[in-house]
Target: Phosphotransferase
Amino acid sequence: MMDVEVRELMQAFVLSDYQVQEVYSRFCAEISKGLKRSTHALANTKCFPTYVQDLPTGDEMGKYLALDLGGTNFRVLLVSLKGHHDAMVESQIYAVPKDLMVGPGVELFDHIADCLARFVEKHEMRNSHLPLGFTFSFPCEQKGLKEAILTRWTKGFGCPGVEGEDVGRLLHEAIQRRGDAEIAVVAILNDTTGTLMSCAHRNADCRVGVIVGTGCNACYVEDVANVDLLHADFKRNQKDVLVNAEWGAFGESGQLDFVRTEYDREVDDTSINKSEQLFEKMTSGMYLGRLVRLILMRAMQSKVIFKLSNRREHFATALQKNEDVFETRFISEIESDSFPEFSKTRTIITELFGLEKASVEDCQKIKYICECVSKRAATLVAIGVSGLINRISDRRVVVGMDGSVYRYHPKFDAYMRNTMHKLVKSDKEFDIMLSEDGSGRGAALVAAVASKTK
Ligand code: BGC
Model:
């Protein structure tokens, strides 16, 4: 039996069936609001049309360049689509230095163009005129496949001079400034769109793409008749369009206040985008570790953990060092630990606090804290996914998923399925599949499908 004190401490993270249903209804209402022209401006979930209207068939061919910006790293990729649902990807990872994440936008785009030029040089492709797909994983209002206006930065980025601008143009200009490579940007897409496309390339039933990584968001296939923001020209010969829900912003009109805790409020208060991306702040990798850190600090203060140690002060100081000392990956490691050894948990405790011998009880409590935080995150993601599945007319829907939290957490998938079984309509069938390199393969597929349509 879990200790009463730690149960009490975590009570607010355990969502009741009523709360789950209520969040579900509010989420569905918000998606409808985002799609309708008359309510779009007021909606949190912007439901941007992506201008991607065809799913891949599997027979796409050709070589494409892809860029992937949006998490902790920046990548340049060379993707060869080989038909028969097959693709080969070569890629190079480049760090995005912290100061570039908040420095002038021009410098960020110059850095991107510089990495791209180095990659092209290395692969001897300077004059190959390969089409490029740019996976830019921030909220963008698309005006077409290759025109995307950044509406706001998220995930710790904050470069001035980019919000309100077309990122396709900024990239094009940065490539021109260098003048050493001929590259045409043919598509800009969100990582969730890339995930959906790359999963649909493998499985024809895929209709939803979800990322639970540094940030959290989803994209899904919507009937064009429901997408007011899509120009009539794009509705004439097409039945569907992929919609980028931008669900990370859900809750900004107070819809989640009845489930948010004091810890959620503190994480938000100390972030660089206060009052924004509230759903994301309860679900994604950038914030889950910060939540656990705040709970651990409270748990120490009130002697719920490390009760017998006279070094609690010292431990508290270790956690105060900075908001990211308790990394989100620790949650996955701790939750995959087993009783009574708790070897990974002990290693983390030793590294963080210099405490050599944590008790089994303390390890159990810390694991329980992590479980409550990640289970709530998975439940919220599942609420969103179920809402989207239930909107889609197909009876069977496969959900493509990616992102470090989903990928590396031992139980995130199981937690999600648990909630989805309660919320997905009974006449539907669903499955979840892990995406393989959605940002790279997805970008190439969007570029390929677009040129087919032309
Ligand atoms: C962004 C989304 C993105 C998600 C996952 C969020 O912060 O707003 O556009 O899809 O992170 O990377």
Remarks:
- The pocket of beta-D-glucopyranose is lined by residues 70, 137-139, 154-155, 190-192, 211, 213, 215-217, 246, 248, 280 (CB under 6 Å).
- The domain at 49-202+438-449 is CATH 3.30.420.40 (Nucleotidyltransferase; domain 5).
- The first helix runs from residue 4 to 10.
